[in-house]
Amino acid sequence: MDSIFEYYIGSSDRTKAHTSAVLRSSLLSSRACIYLLNMSSIAARCCSTPASRHVRGASTSSSPSSTTIRLPTRTTRTAERRSRRTSAIVAFSSSSRETSSSSSSKTPGATSTDTAANSAISSSEDRADKEDIKNENGEGEEEEEEGQGACPYSSVKSFFGMDAKKEVPDLRSDYDGSEPPMIDDIAFLKSLVKAAQHPVGMPIAMLDWAEQKGECVGIQNAIGPDCVSILDPEIVEYVCHTNAKNYKLRMLPDAFRFVIKNKGITGSDGQYNREHRLMCQKPFINSFSLTQFSNTVEERISYMCETWRTACAMREEGKINVNIDNDSQLVTLDVIGKVAFAFDFEQCESHAAKLLRGEDIVSDNISQILDSYNGTSEIMGQLFITPGPILKLQYALGIGRVRELKEKYAILESVGTKLITERRETVKKRVAEGDFNDYCLLDVLVKATDEDGNLLPDDDLWGDINDVMAAGHRTTASNFTVNLFHVARHPEIQRRIEEEVALLGGRAPTFEDVQEGRLDYTRMVVKESLRKYAPINLFPRLASDEDTLPSGHKVKAGDFILLSSYAMGRNPRVWENPLEFNPERFTDESLRVQAEKQAKASAKDDPEKFEIAKERMRRRMAAGRDFTYTPFGAGPRSCIGGVFALLTATTMLATAVQNFKFGKCDDGVHEDPGEEIPIMYDTTICFPEGVWLSMTPREPKLGSDFQQSSSEAKTSTAVPMSR
Asked: Which residues is 660 bridged to in the sheet?
């Protein structure tokens, strides 16, 4: 690439034009172009399949049927936790259900309506998702009532060669009829070279363009479709909400569609996609289902903590150094298996047997599933940018790994079909007994029918389940990893979490604690991790028809719209000192300041417009629709499990800190990476070098002595009834 750049710089204008056209044609004309830009720097790495890309235990959800599943060795304690918890746990609205006037520090984005009844919150979530569907269909194009957002889940510089002291363009350039910002050939190529050499890929180029031209810039292509790169929150809102119907098509690699046959939430479009998104969302906003999921998350992370505690006790120094990336994936795989289709991968048990006794106890059935799952992930990485016609040719000729990919996916589908058949019978029996509850996502799907009243076919169900597995596992695991990395490096952050957890009195943290504001700061840590290290770096869109963006950029049918959670999370025009890890960004006061900043940029010097825009921004941020914070994407195709992910990650982080003191790795083998974790992106974020840290057990667990001292204090201060 460097030699191409040197050739380009020393060439004539005509040669430059030709070279630029060829490059842009190859990079921007095909359906895989965005992924070529994004993946060019790591395509070779995909072939070697780093260990961190394998499913070592992954899941983002927990299986609801915790009341009937086997709870390995922790049954009694889990039952005690349940008896202390109220029965109704509901999803909190987009930025999570913020509470309560009694909390000393309110959850970020809290509003006065946050104390509404659980049923009202769930109803609000349902309404918000229906509005999303209307937007994508082109219905209800008028602005809906503030707070009922189209994106309920999105709430939830030197490093890039950018000097924070440099002057930067305005947040946006209001279109006044002049030519909108465009990237010239030299700037385009320089950024392309930089992105190709960076493990993050395309978002690095987007940050470069924002620094040079502003947050909404166009890229012309003489041969193929044009492209618009957008970091401006208001333009993102326009694409993902205001005119979402024109930008509902998403970019997917041809290899993905080749295998999944346009099934599932990720691989489908149109009415099919909308219907399946609504179905799959139900258990993640249903009080009963969330209670089951909470039980599973609590039990699984507690099991892993007990394994760590035992390992520490076996060592003379009384502590251990672990690759938390590995262990995070094990916990989350167990959780997502149970949440998605009530399947127990038993990864925590296998890890305990290996770590404590040196035994391999993985069953043949589980081993086959994990091998196929890892294999499809590895091969998909290798074929990520291969065009569809070439994939079909390779499959027909039996060359490359296309047939192997198909075979491994067929194994997964076969196992999935068997699980679906078994679950149909289980649900049928429960319904006959009058139990209509959904203990996992599959319970919802096996009861779903089409417009003619027929049950959905198995391949439809497996497409959805497989998507939730793939999307939820590594994303939640990576967030847990990033959380503990920063806790281990920043004593003050760890101390603030300790203070919250200690007030729980030694009992295990729950989803309910998150929802009711008892773990506000812990949740802010989770949100800051998602801002700085977005699980998925790009969520690009395709234009369906001609349009003019608010920036003045003309868009034609088939043009690319580049959107990036990673770039938006590190945009210095929106986030002050974006490379600094600072959970305080998500306090109420910080959100207020952020709203005023966005409103000022939108209204310019018009006082009346400023007041209107400020209130609008404040209400959007409170509802999780500010379009500046997009770790779960934005708009009608945002992550359906965003609320659940925040609940899970916060509960897991609080439990880990309750049990252990974390610090930097001190084994003398693994070097300290500094403040930036070495990362790369294939389909999601991963850590090619692992993430190592040390942990020392707390004796007793945080809050246990607090509960005892509180009881003693009450006894000592009691007033005697008589002398």
From this structure: 697
